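G., before I forget:
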Amino acid sequence: MINIAILGYGTIGSGVVEVLGLNGDSISKKCGHEINIKYILDLKDFPGTPIENKIVHDFNVIANDPEIKIVVEVMGGVEPAYSFVKEAILRGKSVCTSNKELVAKHGAELLALSKEQKVNFLFEASVGGGIPIIRPLNQSLTADEIEEITGILNGTTNYILSKMTDEGADFDATLKEAQAKGYAERHPEADVEGYDACRKIAILSSLAFGMQVDFEDIYTEGISKITQTDIKYAKAMGARIKLLGTSKREGNHVYAMVTPMMIFQNHPLYSVNDVFNGIFVRGNVIGDVMFYGSGAGKLPTASAVVADVVDAAKHLGTNIMTIWSSKKLELSSITHAKHKFFVRIADSDAKVKDKVKEIFGDVEEVVAEGVENEYAFITQPIDEDTFAKNSSKIDHIVSKIRVRV
Ligand code: HSE
């Protein structure tokens, strides 16, 4: 029997308890050991529930108990999660976490510490909810040099954009639904402003390139400025708006960004809707692969956490090698990243069209039913820098959205 402790009895923590209750027998068979939840750390008590007797309020009870071999950290946030995880590793315990903030900030350090202590620091659930992506990047794709990762990495924003597109739903009401379904972060700006997706692409890039990619260096825009009118235009063009996290290697340079993008039916991420996430990876040997599944929510995320617990239980006393050095990867600026740009101008005068043509050359005019008194167009593929310079010469731009070429 292997004893574990869970830090945090929120959405994911209670999901881990539920998964181990539901599939405990088959999980034990696959693991070769019975997994026993000995403690659950939480600020609250849960009187009258089956976990009542497992609740502890002091982390030291867990740290000091040599019977605890694996700690599941599902509290979220950097502190006190970081201090608890570090202490657990130093005490010879493996840690499985869903905490992307912790992994993005301290992943390299905690992996190095785990290696020294011959334990494991596993974080499959930190990116893509239940989708296997960390293990494939670390194991199945090791023969490849990764050239690109592009993903819909945030379930909440994909849910909001899908409902706005398919049902004409209101942004705020849909966000509330996502919160009620347990998809959204405690502070929803982490989802809607792209910070969550930013941490996730930082983690994936660090693993893909084997060095520390600091999330602070990644250009990030969220979806809070996307309106129903933008969506009407996207529909008129046969496109969908998605919040994409991308990191791309070009020669010796890597750039990364998180932005809303219009994508067309020919892109594999076009059909990834609702709370689903999709992660497209291009390797120099394998070519294109795509990972798809439930990107957020209690049970999908708990499924990934429990799979890590089984992996940690199978590797007690052995460290699973993960290449992620603390050496910083200097990202190149996005100024040379090339896309088309969709632009709306709150002015439909013929003179504006002439000016746009003079500045951007040939553009494709876009018309959306019921939208009046504005001029919308798509540029030819141009780089970020050129777009910024050109667009600064035009007044009354109400929105701009990148278009994937
Ligand atoms: N808030 C996150 C999302 C949870 O919506 O994707 C999963 O990391």
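The chain has three domains: 2-129+298-326, 134-294, 334-403. The longest helix spans residues 100-117.

More on Monday.
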